[in-house]
Amino acid sequence: MSAALVEAPQLPGWDHVVAGKVRELYVPAGADPATATEVLVVATDRISAYDHSLQPGIPDKGRLLTGISLFWFEQLGDIVPHHVLSATDVPDAVAGRALRCRGLDMLPLECIARGYLTGSGLADYRAGGSVGGHVLPAGLTEASRLDPALFTPSTKAGPGEHDENITVAQARELLGEELTEQLEALTLAVYERARTLAAERGILLADTKLEFGRSRLDGTLVLGDEVLTPDSSRFWSADAVVPGTAPPSLDKQFVRDWLTSPASGWHRGADLPPPALPAEVVEQTRARYVEAYERLTGTSF
């Protein structure tokens, strides 16, 4: 049994069925996890990077991610239905970081929208001049704005495996042309709405990852998981972005950067697990998540 399973709280009326890197999933007591039409999603304070769950966690992260996701689900409801049923009718032990949600059969695709060139998209561009099968003009650099934004899917990796960037054509082979086109349209519509709203708050949304599933009640395509959080997106302060340089982030990139810096003494290709996060990295990561929460939602945390 993993440490995550041991740490998951016992909640009356709910069976714990899945321990993810960041979230715990429950179903109503006695329900079959494969067919349950309602689930309880609990966000923990754990943080992951490069397919490793890191220690220690980030204080209040579960509440921050839940609050940011709820804000965005409300902003996006006219574009695509979401999986949230209630944020208040949850067990007291996990109040503030748990959501009662529709049971979904998740699609095997990470739906990524990129509005600025950075991360693995920049690496792909430098290697071959394209991102996700989209051929881009020469001369682009770190933080170059992409108009229109790009849909660049990736596979959803199993335990111990890595997500793999694929082209839209490969996504069509995986899911069929009609569903892929639907996912592309929804992903880009969500991104453009979020990019506009975030910009009004002084934040550039560089990219984001969305996940969709089919409702187990009627087969409707539903936006699930988390949405537009510092774990699933890159947020930059608009006044700090200089094309050609990596902008300071209000997201998990800060942790990734420390892990790959000489300060950590860790190498991604090594068999050893990453070192513990220093107190100052934990503190600064929390501060970035709180700033993203407060600037996006307009409320204090």
Topology, element by element:
Layout: H1 3-7, E1 14-19, E2 23-28, E3 38-43, E4 47-49, E5 52-54, H2 61-76, E6 84-86, E7 98-102, E8 104-106, E9 109-116, H3 119-128, E10 130-131, E11 134-135, E12 145-151, E13 154-155, H4 168-175, H5 177-200, E14 203-215, E15 221-224, E16 233-237, H6 253-259, H7 279-297
Helix pairs in contact: 2-7, 4-5
Structure commentary:
Helix 2 runs parallel beside helix 7 (279-297) and helix 4 (168-175) crosses helix 5 (177-200). The chain is an alpha+beta fold and 301 residues long. Mean pLDDT is 94; it is low at 1-6. The chain contains seven helices and 16 strands. The protein has two domains: 9-103, Phosphorylase Kinase, domain 1, CATH 3.30.200; 105-264 and 288-295, ATP-grasp fold, B domain (D-amino Acid Aminotransferase, Chain A, domain 1, 2-Layer Sandwich). The protein is globular and about 55 Å long. It starts with a helix and ends with a helix. Strands 8, 9, 12, 13, 14, 15 and 16 form a seven-stranded antiparallel β-sheet that branches.
